[in-house]
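Regression test case RT-17, inverse folding.

Input:
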């Protein structure tokens, strides 16, 4: 494949780039090259949301993705960790676009200045005093804009809690969230303005091609001659990966982006999987739930929570919407972080991985995939194609599943401990059990001794007490900035106790008895709803 430039839609025109480094971030390009400085740099690692932008794409047949808004899919992402070539064939929207949407032909005041027309999102922020220092405001505005467009398209209005969930990836340290949530509700009361998607769709169709992208900066000094490959089909991906086993495999860039921003690590050649539609499918395959490795975290968690509602809390607390829109569950699993929240849940569900190298495929149980800290069973040239949750789990009778995330911050934080528990009862006896923890060892790991203490025993407080004691033999956790070893040891025992209390046959505790929202003074948070 010959070298191609990066082409994407931005501010009413198709942008062509051929000299930028493959690892130049969207944020740096916006601020330094396009001079669109409304998008801010805060943490530069995808945590604060100050750099939130929207990416528009054409719907992909067969892929599980966001609902199309008048023929265009819009999703928020963090510009600071997205590499510029990943925009190829897409549309980029920033806070500067809201004025174009509101007033395509701006008027001029008698003094000769251009009149500023505010979008309903911006107007609501002004009316509700949703900004003080203003640094975080563009990110909040773009997240609210995504919410505004989505609910306008469906004719609905978000609850205050839904607004809070949508804004969980945007941090504010001076205004506070009540006024921003007020603005999120107020924006739907103002005269409606919607994004005109037709010209965007026309532009994207004009730059869409049948082949993937092969990009190398015109100035090789810009990236030491590194090549960015973006295949379109699974077979092309397999061939590229086999031919370039040392290339960096890139999915959502939610981890790899930090290698560049924080570690200043050169990535060499890059193979981007984000344009392979076949990797984004989520469907029942031979009775199992098959999640394509390229399916977004948002789509994957939604599919899991749709079948196991008890996973909803972990889903909504996994990072933030911009991270879940960009990141993939396959990437989260392949990354192998001992504090990744996908692996404990999937391991508790008995998941296996479909691995591919060239035309060859093999299946590995997730239990056997992690070999040591950040080391896995992938062979050179091999990649994760899909994650399978077995049919036996989907159809199991008298089974119980819970997952708990313990972190310093409720939203958008790394887990100190993540526990996922699944058990099946035969009468009053434990017939099958899997107790899995992240944050307790060098890898996500099952608590083998605690499981043995429960297997074949009555599901009772006495059995749980024995298993809690056994947990001390299963794990020797470390002390780090997230939690001390002693805290972790106590937490895992408490989580197992909570699991028992919620799933015991007699008088199990319901959600209102185990949720913090049922006891918090909601009136202090605004309008009587949890935020």
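Golden output:
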């Amino acid at each position: 494949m010959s070298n191609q430039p990066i082409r994407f839609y931005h501010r009413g025109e198709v942008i062509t780039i051929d000299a930028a480094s493959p690892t130049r971030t969207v944020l740096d390009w916006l601020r330094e090259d396009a001079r669109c400085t409304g998008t801010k740099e805060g943490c530069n690692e995808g945590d604060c949301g100050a750099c939130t932008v929207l990416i528009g794409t054409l719907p992909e047949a067969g892929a599980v993705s966001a609902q199309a808004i008048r023929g265009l899919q819009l999703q928020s992402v963090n510009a600071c960790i997205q590499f510029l070539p990943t925009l190829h064939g897409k549309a980029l929207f920033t806070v500067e676009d809201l004025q174009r949407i509101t007033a395509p032909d701006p008027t001029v005041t008698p003094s000769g200045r251009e009149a500023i027309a505010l979008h309903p999102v911006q107007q609501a922020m002004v009316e509700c005093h949703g900004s003080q220092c203003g640094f975080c405001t563009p990110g909040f505005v773009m997240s609210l804009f995504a919410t505004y467009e989505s609910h306008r398209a469906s004719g609905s209005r978000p609850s205050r809690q839904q607004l809070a969930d949508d804004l969980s990836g945007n941090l504010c340290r001076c205004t506070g969230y009540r006024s921003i949530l007020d603005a999120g509700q107020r924006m739907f009361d103002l005269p409606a303005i919607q994004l005109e998607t037709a010209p965007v769709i026309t532009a994207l169709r004009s730059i869409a091609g049948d082949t993937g992208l092969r990009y190398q900066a015109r100035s090789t000094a810009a990236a030491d001659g590194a090549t960015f490959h973006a295949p379109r089909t699974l077979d092309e991906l397999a061939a590229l990966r086999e031919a370039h086993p040392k290339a960096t495999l890139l999915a959502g860039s939610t981890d790899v982006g930090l290698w560049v921003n924080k570690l200043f690590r050169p990535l060499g050649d890059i193979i981007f999987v984000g344009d392979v539609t076949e990797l984004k499918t989520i469907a029942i395959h031979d009775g199992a739930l098959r999640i394509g490795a390229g399916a977004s975290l948002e789509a994957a968690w939604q599919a899991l929570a749709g079948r196991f509602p008890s996973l909803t809390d972990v889903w909504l607390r996994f990072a933030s919407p911009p991270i879940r829109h960009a990141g993939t569950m396959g990437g989260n699993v392949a990354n192998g972080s001992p504090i990744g929240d996908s692996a404990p849940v999937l391991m508790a569900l008995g998941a296996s991985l479909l691995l591919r190298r060239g035309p060859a495929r093999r299946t590995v149980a997730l239990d056997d995939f992690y070999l040591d800290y950040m080391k896995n069973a992938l062979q050179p040239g091999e990649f994760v194609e899909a994650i399978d949750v077995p049919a036996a789990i989907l159809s199991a009778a008298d089974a119980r599943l819970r997952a708990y995330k313990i972190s310093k911050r409720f939203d958008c934080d790394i887990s100190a401990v993540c526990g996922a528990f699944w058990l099946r009862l035969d009468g009053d006896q434990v017939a099958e059990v899997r107790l899995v923890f992240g944050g307790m060892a060098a890898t996500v790991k099952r608590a083998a001794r605690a499981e043995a203490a429960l297997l074949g025993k009555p599901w009772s407080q006495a059995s749980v007490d024995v298993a809690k004691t056994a947990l001390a033999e299963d794990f020797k956790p470390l002390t780090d900035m997230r939690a001390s070893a002693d805290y972790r040891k106590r937490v895992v025992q408490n989580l197992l106790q909570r699991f028992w209390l919620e799933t015991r046959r007699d008088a199990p505790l319901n959600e209102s008895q185990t949720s913090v929202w049922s006891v918090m003074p909601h009136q202090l948070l605004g309008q009587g709803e949890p935020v």
